[in-house]
Structure formats: structure tokens, C-alpha cells
Design goal:
Layout lengths: L2 E8 L21 E6 L2 E6 L4 E5 L5 E6 L11 E2 L10 E4 L8 E3 L5 E6 L6 E3 L4 E3 L1 E6 L5 E6 L2 E2 L6 E7 L5 E6 L3 E7 L5 E8 L11 E10 L5 E10 L7 E10 L4 E7 L13 E5 L5 E8 L2 E7 L5 E8 L7 E6 L5 E6 L3 E7 L15
Parallel strand pairs: 5-7, 6-7
Antiparallel strand pairs: 1-29, 2-3, 3-4, 4-5, 8-9, 9-12, 10-11, 12-13, 13-14, 15-16, 16-17, 17-18, 19-20, 20-21, 21-22, 23-24, 24-25, 25-26, 27-28, 28-29
Length: about 375
């Protein structure tokens, strides 16, 4: 599967640059995230506390930024200084610690941030700091409100793993603590619809298996009221607890129960010891996975909801050059990535939505 380079970003603090500077041997502790909608690319850069919007050709279209950590934009119109209409604007907001981002069907921009110190709470039952909220901005750059656990204006979340938006334009915020993952599900106006708790000491295990389960990730359904758990299993009987298999479990929110599971086939290369990572589901209900094969080669695998392999395809990433990467699977199954290198960041995609039997009729491309 051929990789297509959309555009590159130079490293720096400018409005069309990205800050991926890190100290040697110290992992990134700030989130940099990429999402795509209708061919537009949104990049949240935690090191600079800003979110940038680009065309698929790399033209910057808008910027949300903390003015105390970023220079004054020169390519965009500052809304606070110029009231004339413009289609390329910069919006000032005093972000504290930006993280996950998402975009709704109404083009509301969702940005994870932290609360002031005097609003931080602590949950003794889970030994968790509660200090995160999700800010909402409309398509004109205006701040709408923020989401907390109870909905609009609610109390802070624990660590946010991801923010997702389904086909109904509902907002799903997936959080985790040391002992549980909590999923908060909202209508588009911010009203809380569901709260789902997934205790780590009560993960599902296939019938007849004597295995130790380990939760890799949770994603929400695009069309249905369901979440999908990707669980890896390790042999309880051996001293080294070697890996045995992985499964996807569907949890039906309305029925409040696991309704099915499928075993994930192993990648079809010789090593066979790389556990496939779960990228998510598309609108057609296919599951997408990626696994490192060897060197710079990775394998993407697509499964139908009955577990049948729909497609396998190799992709290349020049892994030895990459210091940071973030993936985003769009609603049609197209995979876009931000690949951070020592001197630049590349924005690329693979047309995984074209894999056999996968492409959705309303694909934009």
C-alpha cells in the first residue's frame, strides 16, 4: 500500500511549524495529535499549546493558540486585533496543557486541556487526579463551553485516552485510571447520555481459556451504541506468561453486556511475535489493525465483524528515522499519520479505505 506525502512541517514555534523538541533519552510528555475531516488536517501540538488547521496541501487555515507560548502570527488574521472577515484566522485562548483533539460534524473543535490548580480534584477510590476538561469551539472560532464528567460545565475528568465523534455527531470521551477505564458518552449539545465503567480486574476472557487479560485500548462504534475492547491474553500457566492471543469484544451499551467477541488472526509473517495494534473501526463496521513486520515494513489487516480477514497490506514508514508518530483512522478507513523526524514532521496517508470491500460510498477521495 503506497504512502502519499501530503505535506511537511518544519520544526519551530511559527504558526505553520510544529514543536517536537525533546531532550535525549526522555520520552515525550506532551501530546501531539492529528485528526482529519473532509480532507482538512487538524494538528494539536502540546509543546506549544496550540491547534493548527491545514488544507491537504499544507496551507494553514486557522490557529488556536496560547499567546504567552507562541509568537504573533504573520500568515493569519488575528481575530482579537482585526474585525474584518477572513477565511484564515488566528484565535487566542490561554490553553494550559492541550492534549487530545477531535472535530464534530458541525465543525466544532474539541480540545483537551487542564483546569486551574484550584479546581483540581482527587478521587481517593482510584487514587486519581481529576484535572482534565474538553473545550468546545464552534466553526467560527468562538469558545462555546467545556465538558466535564457530568456534561457542560461538569467536574474534571481523569486522564483522557482519546476523544471520538460518531456518525450521530455524539461525543465520546474515553478516560482511564489505575483500576478502571471510564467512557463518557454525550449528545452533540453536551448532555451526558451514558457512563460506561470497564474495571481492569474484570476484563472478559473467552470461554475455556485460562489466561491473563490485558486491555490495549477501547474505541467507540461509529454507527452503533457500542464500544470495542481490544484485549491481549497471556498464559497463566507459564512462568513467563507468554502471549497467547488477542480478541475484540463488543460491549452493547443499551444491553449493558458483551454481545460478541472475535479472535484476531496473527500477522502472516515469519516472526509472528508482534501483537497487532487496534486502529479502530470504519462506518462499514470493519476493524483495522497494524503490526510491525520487520525493519521499516508494517502490515495492515482488516477484519469483518465476523472475524474474517477482508484484506492484508504492507506499508512502509522508515521507522529508524521517526522519533514521534500519531495515527488517525477516519470514518471511511483511511489512515493518516503525523511522523516526527529530527528535522521536520511529515503528514502522510495510506489509502487503506480502498482495500477490497472496505471503501465507503461517501468517501471524499
Amino acid at each position: 500500500m503506497e504512502r502519499e506525502l501530503l505535506f511537511e512541517l518544519s520544526l519551530g514555534k511559527g504558526e505553520d511549524q510544529i514543536d517536537l523538541v525533546q531532550m535525549p533519552n526522555i520520552p515525550f510528555n506532551k501530546k501531539t495529535r492529528i485528526v482529519m475531516k473532509d480532507g482538512l488536517i487538524y494538528i494539536g501540538n502540546g509543546n506549544s499549546n496550540k491547534v493548527m488547521e491545514f488544507s491537504s496541501y499544507g496551507d494553514i487555515l486557522s490557529l488556536f493558540y496560547n499567546p504567552h507560548e507562541n509568537p504573533v502570527p504573520v500568515l493569519l488574521t488575528s481575530v482579537s486585533e482585526d474585525t474584518t472577515s477572513s477565511n484564515r484566522n488566528a484565535y487566542i485562548f490561554n490553553f494550559r496543557n492541550t492534549g487530545e483533539i477531535a472535530i464534530t460534524e458541525k465543525n466544532d473543535l474539541l480540545i483537551e486541556d487542564t483546569v486551574p490548580d484550584n479546581r483540581i480534584d482527587y478521587d481517593e477510590s482510584t487514587e486519581t487526579i481529576l484535572n482534565r476538561i474538553v473545550l468546545r469551539f464552534d466553526g467560527e472560532g468562538e469558545f462555546i463551553n467545556f465538558l466535564g464528567r457530568e456534561g457542560v460545565g461538569g467536574t474534571p475528568f481523569p486522564y483522557i485516552e482519546k476523544i471520538e465523534v460518531n456518525s450521530k455527531d455524539e461525543i465520546i470521551i474515553i478516560t482511564r485510571t489505575k483500576i478502571t477505564w471510564n467512557i463518557y458518552w454525550y449528545s452533540n449539545n453536551g448532555s451526558l447520555k451514558y457512563t460506561i465503567r470497564v474495571p481492569l480486574d474484570d476484563l472478559p476472557v473467552p470461554p475455556g481459556e485460562n489466561s491473563i487479560p490485558s486491555l490495549e485500548t477501547i474505541v467507540s462504534g461509529r454507527q452503533e451504541n457500542a464500544i470495542y475492547l481490544k484485549v491481549d491474553y497471556y498464559n497463566k500457566e507459564t512462568t513467563d506468561h507468554n502471549y497467547t492471543m488477542s480478541c475484540i469484544w463488543e460491549y452493547n451499551i443499551d444491553r449493558e453486556e458483551y454481545t460478541k467477541f472475535i479472535r484476531i488472526p496473527e500477522p502472516d509473517f515469519d516472526e509472528g511475535d508482534d501483537i497487532p495494534g487496534f486502529l479502530g473501526v470504519n462506518n462499514a463496521g470493519y476493524y483495522f489493525f497494524i503490526a510491525h513486520e520487520t525493519g521499516n515494513t508494517f502490515q495492515m489487516m482488516v477484519l469483518a465483524d465476523n472475524g474474517a480477514v477482508v484484506a492484508r497490506s504492507e506499508l512502509t514508514m522508515m521507522d529508524e528515522e521517526i522519533s514521534y508518530r500519531d495515527f488517525y483512522l477516519d470514518q471511511n478507513g483511511l489512515l493518516v499519520a503525523l511522523l516526527g523526524k529530527y528535522d521536520r514532521a511529515e503528514i502522510v496517508w495510506w489509502r487503506s479505505d480502498k482495500l477490497s470491500g472496505v471503501q465507503n460510498e461517501d468517501s471524499q477521495f
